[in-house]
Amino acid sequence: MKFLLSVALVAFFMTGTVTAQKVSFGIKGGLNVYSIHNNDKSLDNRPVAGFHIGALSHIHLSEKFALQPEVVFSTIGSNYKYGPDETRYNLSYINVPVLLQYMFKNGLRLQAGPQVSFLVHARSHTGDIKSDIREDFRTADFGLATGASYLVPNTGFGFDARFNLGLSDINKNGTFKSSNRGLQVGVFYLFNKKIKALYLF
Fold it and tell me: Which pTM was predicted?
């Protein structure tokens, strides 16, 4: 997990050392379909829907390659059934993916990269009982994001789809290992302004 964090930090710092390259800033939002995967096979685990919204920057490294860091607020969760009772877990994270993209001339982009997520809050709902369960989860989650996006030619609008795979155990006190995983689909808009990246060093 330390390796993934190191890769993310290096990628962020690399964005500051690229000069004379095209940089665009944008906004994004869309739908999440997530579940909390765990190694206890006795649990009936069902995905739940959520949303994500945030900001991104798109940095051209060359004609075909780009780097895309993002900061995104994301709601995820899972439904568990214990006998007759069903419990819903609602978690919120700040996701910070850093994606390396391969760009085709028709607007299609393939992308993959590490993602660091920071827990904002966690709650459980069982019937009419609501509980704050943030102390049961680790504050940071490390994972891998892979997918594709499409930028409509001659516009700033695009579509994005990706699969986020959690690689770390999010349980702090649990007796079994749990990890986040799910799909994100959404739209984004890149503003037309292009500026030169500045040195950070």
Answer: 0.82
